[in-house]
Design brief:
Elements lengths: L1 H28 L1 H5 L5 H5 L9 E2 L5 E8 L2 E6 L5 H4 L1 E3 L3 E3 L1 H4 L1 H4 L7 H9 L8 E4 L3 H11 L4 E6 L6 E7 L13 H10 L21 H10 L8 E4 L20 E4 L1 H6 L3 H23 L26 H8 L9 H12 L4 E2 L4 E5 L5 E4 L4 E3 L4 H16 L16 E9 L2 E11 L6 E7 L6 H16 L2
Parallel strand pairs: 1-6
Antiparallel strand pairs: 1-2, 2-3, 4-5, 6-12, 7-8, 7-17, 9-10, 11-14, 12-13, 15-16, 16-17
Helix pairs in contact: 8-16, 10-12, 12-13
Length: 475
């Protein structure tokens, strides 16, 4: 009997130890993370009693701050321009945008400080609020907003070498300050939700559109790597029907062209038939789907903020010749965000290497000391370096060549690489696109612009893209 009792006592001791370790794990290791989880309601029940740190741009311009109001604190934002990504932090609606991503950092509980978590748990210490410095340039954001004006659409610019997001603009947008005021927040949120212009939608990262001819960067790169001779003249006869089985479907030429184009000319004059033929006859559906995946379409992009997942097709496959043809020149069932297109463009700019996009540069503690640097590194290498250089040179010709479509993006004294797109829109007038980078021989900025229902299609978008690059380069 005594042996059984000793055995039971030993078993209970082990179980007690395991339970204690479990409680300790959740209190010590996970407790700080749980208390600062942006989806944990307790964080926002305490928000009015705790000061959140500042969110600033790369030069220290304040985009979000906390003001004291008696015994509580109120979050204050620098207008509507930065809010699609800065987001908001409220008691009623939780947090969105970077306010959610860096919620723990802003109250001084950054995950990079595990010792601080132990001190807070057992010594009752409360760290002063931290701050987050973004890669964004308020000056460039302002320039992009002025260029876009009050046209529905988006502009996003990043450093193709690092993935640092230099500017992001979406229109329509909203002022988040009424959301932080208890007397106005419910009515303000309801009004935003019911607004037909969808100001809560950050079109730069959440907007999904047919990419039009900007997708020809993917088709052209795939075709070159799979055997296309870029210097060979290809006969073009508009419209083109690859096979009688296509029925009434035929690929149109944007200028009803009849003649011959090589790859460079096809980019400059955005010849749909050239890229449809390349997709059907050289790349084929399975390999085009493979290259789309290499360019991270439909994949995780690693952004430190919310973004929409893009798609190649409704099924994820290109299983019909007509769908392959339409996808080849940027139509079909493609749905792509400006974020995705600027990453594709960056891969061309950077010798085939796609960077991981990120808003933040670093996180700092209450004393201003950097506790975490945001340097995620490369995201993918979808194409070879020589392919990227070839496509980049063709993009320069698409801006600088005689009568080239992307000419509005040109900058005096600097070589600019670019590509326009006019995307068919089932709901109305076509959308205008532009992607590009500069200087073409040593890029420091890549841009993607989309303008919904653009009056002049890609020409309008190229004008905006050129102005944004010009502003960044000081021209």
């Amino acid at each position: 009997m005594s042996a059984n009792i000793r055995h039971l006592a030993a078993t209970l001791s082990v179980l007690f130890l395991l339970v204690s370790l479990g409680v300790g794990y959740w209190q010590i290791v996970q407790g700080d993370e749980l208390s600062s989880d942006p989806y944990n309601p307790r964080l926002y029940s305490e928000a009015a009693k705790r000061e959140r740190g500042r969110i600033v741009d790369r030069d220290g311009v304040v985009l979000a701050r906390t003001d004291a109001s008696g015994d509580s604190f109120k979050r204050v934002y620098t207008g509507a321009l930065y809010e699609p990504y800065v987001g908001y932090a409220t008691l009623a609606f939780g947090a969105a945008g970077l306010e959610a991503t860096y919620a723990s950092s802003l109250i001084g509980e950054d995950p990079a400080d595990p010792l601080g978590a132990i001190r807070r748990r057992y010594l009752g210490e409360r760290a002063p609020p931290g701050s987050v410095r973004l890669a964004l340039s308020a000056k460039l954001v302002d320039a992009a907003a002025r260029s876009l004006g009050q046209r529905k659409g988006a502009v996003i610019a990043l450093d193709p070498r690092t993935g640092e997001i230099l500017a992001s603009v979406s229109f329509p947008r909203y002022d988040p300050n009424p959301l932080t005021d208890a007397s106005t927040q419910r009515a303000a949120f309801d009004a935003l939700n019911n607004d037909q212009g969808k100001p809560l939608l950050d079109r730069a990262v959440m907007g999904l559109y047919p990419p039009g001819s900007t997708f020809k960067l993917v088709t052209g790169a795939a075709a070159v790597e799979l055997g296309l001779d870029p210097n060979k003249k290809v006969p073009i006869d508009s419209p083109w029907k690859g096979d009688p089985s296509w029925g009434n479907y035929a690929v149109p030429s944007p200028i009803n062209f009849h003649g011959e184009y090589d790859l460079r000319q096809a980019y400059a004059y955005s010849e749909n038939i050239y890229f449809a033929m390349a997709a059907v006859n050289i790349v084929h559906g399975d390999r085009l789907a493979d290259y789309a995946k290499r360019f991270m379409i439909g994949q995780s992009l690693g952004l430190d903020g919310p973004y929409a997942k893009t798609q190649l097709s409704n099924s994820g496959q290109l299983d019909r010749p007509t769908l392959v043809a339409a996808t080849g020149f940027g139509q079909g069932e493609l749905l792509i965000s400006p974020l995705q297109m600027v990453l594709i463009t960056s891969a061309v700019a950077e010798n085939g290497v796609m960077p991981t996009p990120h808003y933040a540069l670093d996180v700092r503690d209450g004393a201003g000391k950097v506790v975490r640097t945001i340097q995620p590194g490369p995201l993918a290498q979808p194409i070879r370096s020589d392919t990227a250089k070839l496509i980049a040179a063709d993009m320069v010709y698409a801006v600088e060549g005689p009568n080239a479509f992307a000419y509005p993006a040109a900058i005096s004294g600097i070589h600019v690489a670019g590509k326009t797109g006019t995307a068919e829109n089932p709901q109305g007038s076509p959308h205008g696109w532009f992607v590009g980078f500069a200087p073409a021989d040593n890029p420091t900025i890549a841009v993607a612009v989309v303008i919904e229902n653009a009056q002049n299609g890609g020409l309008d978008a190229a004008t905006v893209g050129g102005q944004v690059m010009r502003s960044w380069l000081g021209k």
